[in-house]
Amino acid sequence: MASKEPDHEHREDEDAPAADDEDTGAQVAPIIKLEEVAVSTGEENENAILDLKSKLYRFDKEGNQWKERGAGTVKLLKHKETGKVRLVMRQSKTLKICANHLVLPTMTVQEHAGNDKSCLWHASDFSDGELKDELFCIRFASVENCKTFMEKFQEVAESQKSKEENEDASAVAESLEKLSVEEKKAEDKAGEAVATKEDKETEVDNTVKADSEKKDGEAASST
């Protein structure tokens, strides 16, 4: 019985060493050319004076319950020119705005009863594209962060009060200055009117006097 011999035949392509990939010098252009697009956050003219991770809630009056607005980063942003400060919070994953309002002198922030990591405040919020009176509750990971937020919030509110008073004083001073200028102009116009009237009266008197002297001269000549 013939035994099966091992196969010693090999193909040429198996014996030959694998050829290196040849560089043809061809350049393949991408199918779609992506252009760099500048993304505006609306915060380019503001400086962040507070930046803390937190979770935000709003009170639903109709349902009489707290509803979560989102977890993310709450910021206090100060405008570089006007000095006004607004509170902005975006959800961490979607970047959707869940709070957006100015910090006004009339605002106060207070601790949430029974939770020293949370605090409350009222605001006219614009995060949904229209002004709404909202009651917010924000919760932080630590008591320290909550205290930092409350202190900075109150500090900003007080500074805006001083700024508002200065603006009011400047507006009053400007109004008084404008009024003084207008009064001066009115006085000048009145003086000009009196002077013009006096000039006209003098001119009339001179004319009458001249006519009278002429008539007297003519009468004397006739006699």
Question: Can you tag this structure with a few keywords?
Answer:
elongated, 7-stranded antiparallel sheet, 7 strands
Concise overview:
The chain is an alpha+beta fold and 223 residues long.
Give a written overview of the molecule:
There is one protein chain. The chain has 223 residues and is an alpha+beta fold. The chain is built from two helices and seven strands. The chain has helices at 12-15, 143-222, and strands at residues 46-60, 65-79, 85-91, 97-102, 110-112, 115-125, 132-139. The protein has a seven-stranded antiparallel sheet with strand order 4-3-2-1-7-6-5. A hairpin with a 6-residue loop joins strand 6 (115-125) and strand 7 (132-139). Mean pLDDT is 79; it is low at 1-6.
How many separate helices? 2
Q: Give the strand order, joined by hyphens, for the main sheet.
A: 4-3-2-1-7-6-5
Order of helical and strand elements: HEEEEEEEH
Q: Tell me the fraction of residues in β-strands, as a range.
A: 25-35%
Largest sheet descriptor: 7 strands, antiparallel
Radius of gyration: 43 Å
